[in-house]
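Note on ligand handling. Small-molecule inputs were canonicalized before submission; formal charges were left as drawn, and no protonation-state enumeration was performed. Where a ligand contained multiple stereocentres, the stereochemistry in the source SMILES was retained. For flavin mononucleotide, this procedure yielded the string shown in the input block below.
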Amino acid sequence: MELNTLKENAKEKMKGFCNLCKVCDGVWCAGKVPGMGGTGSASSFKRNYTKLKEINLILKTIHNAKDPILKTTIWGKEIDFPVLGAPITGTKFNMGGGVTEEEYCEDVILGCLEAGTIGMIGDTGDPTCFEFGLKAIKKANGYGVAIIKPRSNEEIIKRIRMAEEAGAIAVGVDLDGAGLVTMKLFGQPVGPKSISELKELVSSTKLPFIAKGIMCVEDALACAEAGVDTIVVSNHGGRVLDYCQSSCEVLEDIVKAVGDKLTILADGSVREGVDILKYLALGAKGVLVGRPLIWGSIGGRKEGVTTIVNTLKNQLVQAMILTGCEDVNSVSNKIIIR
Ligand SMILES: Cc1cc2nc3c(=O)[nH]c(=O)nc-3n(C[C@H](O)[C@H](O)[C@H](O)COP(=O)(O)O)c2cc1C
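Structure output:
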């Protein structure tokens, strides 16, 4: 499927929710949460975009990186390139209903699998969202990751068992969902976790445990102490706290503090290959991509998701060739202009 065709389809079906702007900078959709935007003034979404764009790369063409290596290994699985599908829920209230929750989960999990990588499913106040996600993971023979809202530990562990039963590769919690009022409205309260509560979650499963939404060194150190396997440096696409930093601003310090203990992923405003390369240069093992997968699913279903992911992959190859990066596993901050 052509990228432009899928974007036109998505734009038509997402009227009022997403304008598929030429630059996805959080301006048009500011305040649309529920919806596709950033919360409040959308300062955090806009900052993800602007701070990432402010990073510049050194163009370099005399080197041996003719055929860059993109493969890497995460949670014991080899993936074709270091881009994972972010957990996303709420097709009706966030995206305008262009696809059902069941269709969306299948598109992302199977579309990512087809592109040689791994998709994640999310959790929200409507319990059927998580169930549809698990159904998709089962259909992909377990090739997916389940991210659960920071509910009570008892409720999280219940859902970890469900994810294990579906054969998921890893499980985790989006800790940055700790203040979501919508969850309370559904009668399903969420909140922050203490280190001992995190330890209880980590030791409740043999699967790798992911903490998503880590934005400061203190929290990263707490995750290391609790035995977390992977953190995702993320501000939830700017959807939870207005006026917070962008992930690319805090990533390097977090990598310095816990890079030798934890696997570190990052997300926020990944829209093209150079964005991925910038996060890798700042020390991330890989990135998650969010909103573009929604365009893929609504505009072209599973095939659309695969097209989005493969386009990013091809752009990453170009960016690596033009910066002299031979291997995604050894990209360094030397390619960034300071
Ligand atoms: C509509 C929408 C719904 C989301 N739902 C979830 C969710 O249920 N769980 C979660 O951990 N993150 C959720 N996220 C955040 C994404 O996983 C990811 O962190 C973010 O979208 C990355 O930024 P990007 O969209 O700029 O790529 C959601 C994001 C959007 C845009």
